[in-house]
Amino acid sequence: MTDTQEQTRSRTFSWTDPVLTAARIGTTSGLEMLHAMRDGEIPAPPILQLVGATGFEAEEGRVAVFMPAAEFHYNPLGSVHGGVIATLLDTAAGCTVHSTLPAGVGYTSLDLMTRFIKPVTVNSGLLRCEGAIISRGRRTAVAQSHLYDERGTLLAHATSTCMIFELPTA
Known about the structure:
Elements: H1 18-22, H2 30-38, H3 46-51, E1 55-59, E2 62-68, H4 82-98, E3 105-116, E4 126-136, E5 140-148, E6 154-166
Protein backbone atom coordinates (compact mmCIF):
# COMPACT_ATOMS: atom_id res chain seq x y z
CA MET A 1 0.00 0.00 0.00
CA THR A 2 1.35 3.44 -0.89
CA ASP A 3 1.27 6.47 1.38
CA THR A 4 -1.56 7.96 -0.67
CA GLN A 5 -3.88 4.97 -0.31
CA GLU A 6 -6.26 5.06 2.60
CA GLN A 7 -6.74 2.16 4.93
CA THR A 8 -10.44 1.69 5.68
CA ARG A 9 -11.60 1.04 9.21
CA SER A 10 -15.09 0.18 10.39
CA ARG A 11 -17.02 0.25 13.61
CA THR A 12 -20.32 -1.35 14.57
CA PHE A 13 -22.27 -0.77 17.75
CA SER A 14 -25.57 -1.84 19.22
CA TRP A 15 -27.88 -0.20 21.70
CA THR A 16 -30.91 -1.08 23.74
CA ASP A 17 -34.30 0.56 23.26
CA PRO A 18 -34.04 3.82 25.28
CA VAL A 19 -37.72 3.51 26.25
CA LEU A 20 -36.70 0.76 28.71
CA THR A 21 -34.49 3.20 30.60
CA ALA A 22 -36.89 6.13 30.25
CA ALA A 23 -39.64 4.05 31.86
CA ARG A 24 -37.68 4.20 35.14
CA ILE A 25 -37.46 8.00 35.15
CA GLY A 26 -39.55 9.37 37.95
CA THR A 27 -39.94 6.06 39.78
CA THR A 28 -36.54 6.10 41.50
CA SER A 29 -34.14 8.79 42.64
CA GLY A 30 -31.55 9.98 40.16
CA LEU A 31 -28.77 8.33 42.12
CA GLU A 32 -30.65 5.00 42.23
CA MET A 33 -31.15 5.20 38.47
CA LEU A 34 -27.46 5.94 37.85
CA HIS A 35 -26.47 3.02 40.10
CA ALA A 36 -28.87 0.73 38.16
CA MET A 37 -27.13 1.79 34.91
CA ARG A 38 -23.67 1.36 36.44
CA ASP A 39 -24.59 -2.11 37.72
CA GLY A 40 -26.09 -3.21 34.37
CA GLU A 41 -29.66 -3.49 35.69
CA ILE A 42 -30.81 -1.01 33.05
CA PRO A 43 -28.93 -0.07 29.88
CA ALA A 44 -26.85 3.06 29.51
CA PRO A 45 -28.31 5.65 27.15
CA PRO A 46 -27.54 5.11 23.44
CA ILE A 47 -25.33 8.24 23.32
CA LEU A 48 -22.86 6.67 25.77
CA GLN A 49 -22.80 3.52 23.65
CA LEU A 50 -22.32 5.62 20.48
CA VAL A 51 -19.25 7.44 21.80
CA GLY A 52 -17.79 4.29 23.33
CA ALA A 53 -18.02 5.16 27.02
CA THR A 54 -16.84 2.21 29.08
CA GLY A 55 -18.33 2.99 32.47
CA PHE A 56 -18.97 5.52 35.17
CA GLU A 57 -19.01 6.10 38.91
CA ALA A 58 -21.79 7.92 40.74
CA GLU A 59 -22.40 9.24 44.22
CA GLU A 60 -24.67 12.06 45.30
CA GLY A 61 -23.33 15.27 43.78
CA ARG A 62 -20.40 13.62 41.95
CA VAL A 63 -20.12 11.55 38.77
CA ALA A 64 -17.19 10.28 36.68
CA VAL A 65 -17.56 9.00 33.11
CA PHE A 66 -14.83 6.94 31.38
CA MET A 67 -14.09 6.68 27.66
CA PRO A 68 -10.96 5.65 25.78
CA ALA A 69 -9.98 8.22 23.14
CA ALA A 70 -10.31 6.52 19.75
CA GLU A 71 -9.68 7.29 16.08
CA PHE A 72 -13.41 7.26 15.32
CA HIS A 73 -13.72 10.36 17.54
CA TYR A 74 -11.29 12.32 15.34
CA ASN A 75 -11.91 15.52 13.42
CA PRO A 76 -9.98 16.37 10.21
CA LEU A 77 -7.14 17.85 12.31
CA GLY A 78 -6.28 14.46 13.83
CA SER A 79 -7.65 14.98 17.33
CA VAL A 80 -10.86 14.14 19.16
CA HIS A 81 -13.71 16.32 17.89
CA GLY A 82 -14.84 19.07 20.26
CA GLY A 83 -18.41 17.76 20.05
CA VAL A 84 -17.32 14.43 21.54
CA ILE A 85 -15.49 16.27 24.32
CA ALA A 86 -18.53 18.49 24.94
CA THR A 87 -20.73 15.38 25.08
CA LEU A 88 -18.57 13.94 27.87
CA LEU A 89 -18.52 17.26 29.76
CA ASP A 90 -22.31 17.66 29.40
CA THR A 91 -22.90 14.05 30.47
CA ALA A 92 -20.79 14.36 33.62
CA ALA A 93 -22.35 17.71 34.59
CA GLY A 94 -25.93 16.61 33.85
CA CYS A 95 -25.59 13.24 35.58
CA THR A 96 -24.14 15.02 38.60
CA VAL A 97 -27.33 17.09 38.83
CA HIS A 98 -29.39 13.93 38.23
CA SER A 99 -27.61 12.25 41.16
CA THR A 100 -29.12 14.83 43.54
CA LEU A 101 -32.74 14.49 42.44
CA PRO A 102 -35.45 12.58 44.28
CA ALA A 103 -37.97 10.33 42.51
CA GLY A 104 -40.47 12.31 40.46
CA VAL A 105 -38.08 15.16 39.64
CA GLY A 106 -36.26 15.66 36.34
CA TYR A 107 -33.81 18.09 34.80
CA THR A 108 -32.66 19.45 31.47
CA SER A 109 -29.55 21.35 30.47
CA LEU A 110 -30.02 25.08 29.91
CA ASP A 111 -26.45 25.85 28.86
CA LEU A 112 -22.95 24.44 28.65
CA MET A 113 -19.92 26.74 28.74
CA THR A 114 -16.91 24.76 27.54
CA ARG A 115 -13.19 25.45 27.49
CA PHE A 116 -10.78 23.23 25.56
CA ILE A 117 -7.32 23.27 27.15
CA LYS A 118 -5.23 20.67 25.28
CA PRO A 119 -5.78 18.47 22.23
CA VAL A 120 -7.17 15.01 22.91
CA THR A 121 -5.78 12.10 20.86
CA VAL A 122 -5.54 8.33 21.13
CA ASN A 123 -2.34 8.96 23.09
CA SER A 124 -4.53 10.54 25.81
CA GLY A 125 -5.63 6.99 26.68
CA LEU A 126 -8.56 6.40 28.98
CA LEU A 127 -10.37 9.70 29.54
CA ARG A 128 -11.97 10.48 32.89
CA CYS A 129 -14.63 13.18 32.98
CA GLU A 130 -15.58 14.23 36.52
CA GLY A 131 -18.67 16.23 37.40
CA ALA A 132 -19.48 18.05 40.65
CA ILE A 133 -22.25 20.31 41.92
CA ILE A 134 -21.42 23.99 42.33
CA SER A 135 -24.89 25.11 43.45
CA ARG A 136 -28.25 23.35 43.76
CA GLY A 137 -31.47 25.22 44.29
CA ARG A 138 -35.13 24.32 43.99
CA ARG A 139 -35.45 25.27 40.29
CA THR A 140 -31.89 25.31 38.94
CA ALA A 141 -28.56 23.64 39.57
CA VAL A 142 -25.08 24.56 38.40
CA ALA A 143 -22.52 21.81 37.87
CA GLN A 144 -18.97 21.73 36.61
CA SER A 145 -17.08 19.01 34.80
CA HIS A 146 -13.39 18.41 34.10
CA LEU A 147 -11.90 16.08 31.50
CA TYR A 148 -8.55 14.41 32.25
CA ASP A 149 -6.30 12.09 30.28
CA GLU A 150 -5.05 8.86 31.84
CA ARG A 151 -2.03 10.68 33.29
CA GLY A 152 -4.28 13.18 35.10
CA THR A 153 -3.64 16.15 32.79
CA LEU A 154 -6.59 18.55 32.46
CA LEU A 155 -7.80 18.60 28.84
CA ALA A 156 -11.08 20.55 29.03
CA HIS A 157 -13.64 21.83 31.51
CA ALA A 158 -17.21 23.09 31.46
CA THR A 159 -19.92 24.65 33.57
CA SER A 160 -23.59 23.79 33.02
CA THR A 161 -26.83 25.22 34.34
CA CYS A 162 -29.74 22.78 34.55
CA MET A 163 -33.43 23.44 35.07
CA ILE A 164 -35.08 21.22 37.69
CA PHE A 165 -38.78 20.34 37.35
CA GLU A 166 -41.47 17.99 38.61
CA LEU A 167 -42.13 15.12 36.23
CA PRO A 168 -45.71 14.57 35.07
CA THR A 169 -47.42 11.67 36.77
CA ALA A 170 -48.92 8.89 34.69
